[in-house]
Amino acid sequence: MDSRFIQFDVDEQGWSESRVGGKALNLRRLRAAHIEIPRFFVVTTDAFGLVEPMLREYYAQASFDAGTPAQASPDWLKDFDELLAPVMHDIHSAWPLVSNETGRLAVRSSAVGEDSAALSYAGQYATLLGVSLEGARQALWKCWLSTCERGLIEYRRINQQASLPHMAVICQLMVEAAKSGVAVSRVTREGRREALITAAYGLGVGVVSGNAATDTFCIDLDTGRVRQRIAKKDVAYRLSSGDDAVRAEKVDEPESLEPVLDRRDLARLCAVLPRIEKVFGEPQDVEFAVDTGGELRILQSRAITAEMPISVHRLTFDDSNITESFPGITSPLTFSFAQALYRDVFVGVVENLTSAEAHSAPSRAAAAHLLGSCRGKVYYNVDAWHRLLSCVPFQRVVRTAWDDAVGVRKTGVHVAFTLVKHTARQALDAVRFVLFAVGRGRRVKRAMRTFDRLYDRLHVIDWRALSAYDIRCEYELTRELTRRCWIDAMRSDLLSAVYTSLLRLILSRDRSVSAERALGDVLKSSEEEWPSIRPVTELRRLASLVLRVETLSSLLHSDSSPAEVWSAIAERPEFAQLRSGIVEFVKLYGMRGPEDLKLEIVQEGDTPAGVIGMIRQVLKQMEASEDAARPVRGSSVARGRVDTRLMAGIIGRLCSGALYDREEMRLRRSRAFSVARRLFGELGSRLADRQLLGSARDILFLSLEEAFALVDGSYPPGDPKQTVQPRKDAYASWKAKAQLMPSQFSVDDMVACESWTEAFESGDRSGSPAENLSGVPCSPGIARGKCRVVLEAGEAVLEKGEVLVALVTDPGWVHIMSRAGAIVVEKGNILSHSAIVGRELGIPTVVNVPHAARLLATGDLVEVDGNTGSVRVIERAVP
């Protein structure tokens, strides 16, 4: 078509900014560089010239009228139609050559000077989406009339652009966008080439207007390393019927929590952004869309007119299943001890899995910050975990498996991974990973033998006979003891997480089974008696010994104190079997109890007299009611396809084996912590005797480094008592408010800044009563019963058949859980302690139920469905 009013994107001549405007000229340059953009034509500034006198009058009125904005009169509109008749004739001819079967185009401004290196005019002019041919005249008028908007006039005045701008108009094929966003490329002050990308579902109008929640991705264009922050995207903007009609649609979970852009999208953007930079010779601000067919389309590109501080690096802290190990408030000594162990353990795990020497430094840097402590509560530093896991083979699979396994909430999470492929290294790392998985069993057995030898030595040490310096030296052996069992526990944990993800994938592809329910069935079918159940089993065996001997039974049922009972058992030879059993229990299981990884917690079973008290509790339970056999329900996997049953069986056995080994090493980890508890207890007594601390337990309020600095002479000038007392006061205050602390929060940049503490004021602490709750089903079965909300294991008095409702459980809760008719826990996942014990005991169990301990009250009658994860309130308790 030969027309002075129309310029097609394929035309070779006629491309000047004065004729087509800045935006259209940029699109033409992209087209010439063979970058994929939707086809378009331009209504040139020659058409604008036809109505320019009218618009100048309108512009003058809008510029100087301090009251209401200028209004277009009916006479003006009539004149506009007459002047524009030849232009509309050409538009009618051009429109079908660019549009598709929908007949809809996007109509965008392209003013002279727009999208230039000096001024962007971003958002100042009109853009209309989904315009039909019938609405073309009105869309053209709105674009031109936007030159007279008062906001634009002020923008031009500030930037000393006084005259009315000439405007062309782009009519571009409307992309049916599944997802859209803006990508900005830049060179940092450190010389790195980066891209910042924000994206949302649906049309880009939600992104550029700021009305839609967006995911943010920061990519190092040289290395392909990606950091991403995932938002909860509740709304997507999509085209509706009518010109420029956009509707907001709800985005449901889990889609709303998933990253908008996948690995392929990010890789394509990483490839095209440097090409666009090369076209213009400088970094660009690029709008893009991914259509419903998955194709990437570049919609426009403009220069970056002002320096942008890009900060996607926020720190996210999540308590997820770390609360199983360190619930509530944790002392500085315990935290620093655990933090040092996490660093050593996970550096070892990563370096075991990868052959790349380059990963050593990044993994060590990330591992040093895996845990965070805020107001005494321990959190995972999610960003550090993702950085660490980006160093292992199959990083995306492993990271996703880790997120699922520990129950990290995905909203707002900052993820690090890399897009760059190193095929040879990946192949070598894959071989190492397979060998790592195959050698798990032998490696764990060897580690258990080594641990048991070291523990036998440390368990019998008389710490009172050692000097403070000798205690300091023995600490190194204690740390090595703990590290060895923990590193194998984490190796098994990692493998079980990967196996569980594979199981979930296999089961989800078979529509004849319920994936989550079948997953629990597969894991249960492979489980033997777990190490975490052994303390309860052993206590029941000891109680049975008591019941078989009348004199023993009378002694245990007497009013004598536990210490007096133990003294009698220790003296009388006929009680030798029970005596040796109690001594062995103290050695193997005495340290196992609620919060057994906290150095500040004294476990009841740490002494023979304490075990006597535990046996008495078991005797009362045995006498109150006999444990009825729980019904055995057939596995739902049996209804699946043959290939599903076969693969699920194989992977299930591998997963169960890894889980079993994990629990074996966790039991030994508790033993190692009991050694550390005695070590630091004695060291605290020495420091208190020397008047360096007010009491032996004050050592709990020093960090590991501070405690040993008092021994080896490196403590800085000052009185350690003055360090301890403010911390004791602060921790007492925090303990009273522990339940108000959020499960997840994020902070910018400096961890010590006020936003760290302010995060607690804005954390999610709400929860109105609800009749239906849901979580992750972990152990099948349906049970009804009255709730018993238990916040601390020490306060639990659970009647047989009651529904246990807790914030979190740990291995020390087994004696409580064994009496429950059903288990509901706020934290956890299908591989957590609550889930494993629930399956082992055959108790319907649902975990990861948000706010369960607040939304349910003691006495509420509920129905717990361990098959579907639902918790239904049948009747509320009378206040």
Describe this protein's structure.
The chain is an alpha+beta fold and about 900 residues long. It is built from 29 helices and 26 strands. The strands form five sheets. The chain has an eight-stranded mixed sheet. Strands 13-12-6-7-8-9-17 form a seven-stranded antiparallel sheet. A hairpin with a 4-residue loop joins strand 8 (about 215-220) and strand 9 (about 225-230). Helix 16 (about 470-510) crosses helix 17. The N and C termini lie far apart (about 80 Å). Residues about 65-70, about 310 and about 755-770 have low confidence and may be disordered.
Number of strands: 26
- Main beta-sheet strand count, sense and barrel state: 8 strands, mixed
Query: How much helix is in the residues?
Result: 40-55%
Alpha-carbon distance between the two ends: 81 Å
Mean pLDDT: 80
Shape: elongated
Radius of gyration: 34 Å
Index terms:
alpha+beta; 879 residues; 7-stranded antiparallel beta sheet; 29 helices; 8-stranded mixed beta sheet
Blueprint of the fold:
Blueprint: E1 6-8, H1 17-32, E2 40-43, H2 45-64, H3 74-83, H4 85-98, E3 105-111, E4 127-131, H5 136-145, H6 150-158, E5 167-173, E6 177-187, E7 193-201, H7 205-209, E8 215-220, E9 225-229, E10 235-239, E11 246-250, H8 263-280, E12 284-291, E13 296-303, E14 314-318, H9 322-325, H10 332-353, H11 360-367, E15 371-374, E16 377-381, H12 382-389, H13 395-406, E17 414-418, H14 423-438, H15 440-459, H16 468-508, H17 515-526, H18 534-548, H19 550-557, H20 562-571, H21 576-588, H22 608-624, H23 642-689, H24 704-712, H25 720-736, E18 744-748, H26 754-762, E19 772-774, E20 776-779, E21 782-790, E22 803-806, H27 814-817, E23 822-825, H28 833-841, E24 845-847, H29 852-855, E25 861-865, E26 870-875
Parallel strand pairs: 21-22, 22-23, 23-24
Antiparallel strand pairs: 1-2, 2-5, 3-4, 3-5, 6-7, 6-12, 7-8, 8-9, 9-17, 10-11, 12-13, 14-16, 14-18, 15-16, 19-26, 20-24, 21-25, 25-26
